[in-house]
Amino acid sequence: MAKKTKMDLFLELARPDEDGVSRWVSVSEFVGDYAGLKLGNGGSWTRKEAALAKCYIIELDKNITTKNSIDKIRLAGFNDSNYSQYIKTNIKRIIKSQRCVVLGTSSPEVDHKNGLKNEDRVMRNEKQRLADFQPLSKAANDAKRQFCKECKKTGYRYDAKQLGYPMSYYQGGSTHSNEEDACVGCYWYDPLEFKRHLVKREE
User: Model's pTM, two decimal places?
Assistant: First the structure.
């Protein structure tokens, strides 16, 4: 029987869905049959030149207090070789120090506001800005990911009236295009901006 590669072991442990998205896997789970996944310097099998990264987009959750050691790893979709999920360190540090813009909880994930992820400037990391990202709790980010998936599949944007709000979008209509600003106006693109427009609407 052929020996399992580190990629095989991680996929078995992470169990990504049909879109290549997995749960967060803690490095504390690299024991027993998965002990071979223990990370050396630089993350070894998680590096961009490794087999796993050539197939999937890998997200790393690092502990800044322990010299950026990797705490958790997850897969965020299939790698089409066009875009990178890299987020500048200073931006991640600031966002992670904030609270979720939906639930108000601490220790948020760093979310790309544009769920279509079709902005070259942001995704190719050329001139990323803090305003391109927002803090979302895992629960909120998982919900947004599901709604963005449905939006891309159907062409219909998320309707905020489903959450009880009196308006659906603050910009644009129910359908989206493939333009870089197609997400702008959707509740999930920027919940705080959505609420600011809601206040203006009521004035």
Answer: 0.65
Pairing type for strands 56-63 and 25-26 reads unpaired
- Confidence grade of residue 178 (pLDDT, cut at 50, 70, 90): confident
The alpha carbon of residue 131 and the mean position of all alpha carbons in its chain are separated, in whole angstroms, by 15
* Beta carbons within 10 angstroms of residue 143's beta carbon: 15
Tokens describing residue 151: 């939006």
Note whether 112 and 132 are within 8 A (CB): yes
Q: What is the mean pLDDT of residues 39-62?
A: 81
DSSP assigned state of 175? B
DSSP conformational letter for 183? T
Strand partners, 76: 21
Which amino acid, one-letter code, is at 198? L
Considering the chain, what is the average pLDDT of its residues? 87
